[in-house]
Fold these 2 entries.
Entry 1:
Amino acid sequence: MDIEPIPWSSSLSVGMNSLDSDHQHLLKLINAVLASFAAAKEVNTRDLTDQFDALLAFWPVHFRREEEILEATSYPELISHKKVHRFMEARLAQFRVTFLNLPPTPGNLATLHSRLEDWVLLHIQGVDKRYQPHLPSSPSPGQSS
Ligand SMILES: [Fe+2]
Ligand SMILES: [Fe+2]
């Protein structure tokens, strides 16, 4: 089955290089899960388990890093942001169980693709972007101010 990887675009930038590279890495891991599901011939393959595990391992690492930065800058919406992160961690663990046990059909692949895409993009664009004006500005590479 063919799958379009979810692309990174500069519109997803939150204005801090370390967090942007985390988000890029998250997209890479999500795309690896999708590619593995697309290539699977049966349920519960070793490779899909590994790709889901890699995503599940990095997901909280990124959330903690983001929370530490927001805590250090006394971000006023930190408590609600943390709640969303905890919810997303629980949901991703559920996705892992659900999709490891679903046959790798085009319909299931499309569902997995749209859930993960909506979810990560809506979080970055809707929730993460809200802290951008609050962060100290980090010059992008090549900028000389
Ligand atoms: Fe976040
Ligand atoms: Fe984030």
Note: The longest helix spans residues 46-72.
Entry 2:
Amino acid sequence: MGRAFVYVILGGGVAAGYAALEFSRRGIAPGELCIISEEATAPYERPALSKGFLLPEAPARLPAFHTCVGSNDQRLTPKWYTEQGIELILGTQVKSADVNRKTLTTATGETISYKTLIIATGARALKLEEFGVRGSDAENVCYLRNLADATRLVNTMQTCNEENAVVIGGGYIGMECAAALVTNRIKVTMVFPEAHCMARLFTPKIADFYEAYYESKGVNFIKGTVLSSFENYSDGKVTAVVLRDGTRVPTNMVVVGIGIRPNTGLFEGQLVIEKGGIKVNGRMQSSNSSVYAVGDVATFPVKLFGNECRRLEHVDSARKSARHAVSAILSPDKTSDFDYLPFFYSRVFTLSWQFYGDNTGEVIHYGDFLAGRFGAYWVNKGRIVGAFLEGGNREEYEAIANAVKLKMVAQDKGEVEKLGVEFVSNVGRHQERNNGLVLHKPLYEWQATAGVAVALSVAAFAYWYGRRRQRW
Ligand SMILES: Cc1cc2nc3c(=O)[nH]c(=O)nc-3n(C[C@H](O)[C@H](O)[C@H](O)COP(=O)(O)OP(=O)(O)OC[C@H]3O[C@@H](n4cnc5c(N)ncnc54)[C@H](O)[C@@H]3O)c2cc1C
């Protein structure tokens, strides 16, 4: 028994939804495309799960956040897929893949064949057991990767009003969940091994600001140690966490956000894997020319970083890489290599930040940390390669994105520190002032114009998307 499709998207998350819309816009015949997903719902905007979905009042619920509303585009309900003749094979796990035969086999034993496959399997949440701690199956221990997890988290929060929660992990899932728990009137202790929160991105100075803000909301931080075991786990409900340094923290619930692992398992030994993801070229094409990979599971060359391969775990990258793969499949002659400006953001409480580029090199902080209006540039070999801004407006976010895209030269650290966003906000003005701030001037006028236009449109999209995200 089996079915055959021209195009198969394996995975039904963010990237799948954006790829489906791109297929439909570029034109495919009914019955040519199917999406196979382990989840029982049509693709949705996953970031909503740690934001609007967890609100105590007027929480976001499906169908409100099906893709592609996160980029202010069409909302693709199950009806839309039916109307387009796109088959949604939901609640179906693919158990094996054979890229030579071009087949996938599902848990029910069905064989689905394709001419072109897009792998969009994303990632899964790392479990405590992978670090030698038992207890993930306790009633009040929650993870957050999919809708089922989020529903469980909401139900658990509802039984813990005015009680205590421990959040294990200081990354963005930990930070966003801690904020949501506080908003739901739950007292939070965060535990993580690093010296400060968001250690992969934040500098100690940036982290200090957010930690102080969280503390002002009642969050307690225990840093530099890890979970060792749970108390009373065997009774079904954890009543306390025990840390490696011996500290015991009584709790009514636990949220675990200790990282993710890309879902590459089906393709290991069949496709080239690099940096934990499926290695693709600038067309998102893997080492097998009929197989593409997009989103969290793909490791792709980032032009901006000299084509260094990166695997990114952010929604903007999932959306754009998915669209790019479809363009490369349906319009190969008109599609050049993916040119992506890494971008991510977060919104917690009334705070919001955006980051563009790469956090390597020397850091220059600027702004007023006490007032919550600050940022940082990462400068490598005299050029801005990364930019962070808390509490910016549209023009400011555009400006920092632009600076990274153009790799603006930043030679005078004192001036950069003093001017902050202003340093990058007006290339022309800085050039006119000729005050010792050397800006990156492309060799030809047209390159400059095109570069600015591309950067502005990327930044405008990013900001627009960021604003949309406030709801989710
Ligand atoms: C709670 C949460 C909040 C987030 N917030 C932000 C944010 O604020 N900003 C940001 O930039 N990013 C955020 N992200 C990250 C962002 O959501 C991901 O980068 C994005 O979802 C990746 O899209 P994807 O399509 O590659 O993978 P996913 O959206 O994870 O989709 C993968 C899909 O594949 C399915 N699948 C996997 N294996 C199989 C199989 N064998 N058979 C069938 N189906 C399979 C999965 O069930 C899933 O449906 C957040 C992530 C989470 C979990």
Note: The chain has eleven helices and 28 strands.
